């Protein structure tokens, strides 16, 4: 007896497109979403901090400079060898330099375990991250989605997501309630839908996908 199913295997994105005709049209227009994945590391937290309130392209330039200053690998130990002036020369603002240094201190002093986040539920991860100076709900959402690859994350504080949803569906207002209501149909795969919206956002602006990796 064959155990192979005769039924087609549908991906989460297939399911989303069946339920959301506008998302289906986006998929037909831009193709499959970009991966939007990053390793679950201190370097990823650093990059997310750098991406706060600036473009991905600008943050990547600063991140690459910082990586060079760290000898090719960004981790807590190497960050703590750099002075505030070193961080500023890499392009970090005074505030972001402080956030990165404080996070490095917390990791080295074992007040914050990045490895432990993988075994926590979404709420526990969010609580642990937002207890850190300069790391709020947006940082937690991006880390949950990209690094821990949780399925149902909607980073409502993300400007590209808000604008992308409005480009997907012009009837949606900019309020948190409006965005959340529009995204209800995407449960329990709001992370995948978010990746699709981000891909649409870049596509509409002819942005390079190199800034994602």
TrEMBL record:
It catalyses: Hydrolysis of alkylated DNA, releasing 3-methyladenine, 3-methylguanine, 7-methylguanine and 7-methyladenine. Keywords: DNA damage, DNA repair. InterPro entries: Alkylbase_DNA_Glycosylase/TA (IPR051912), DNA_glycosylase (IPR011257), HhH-GPD_domain (IPR003265). It holds the Pfam family HhH-GPD. It comes from the Bacteria. This is DNA-3-methyladenine glycosylase II. SMART domains: ENDO3c. Residues 50-202 form the HhH-GPD domain. Its EC number is 3.2.2.21. It is an enzyme of class 3 (hydrolase).
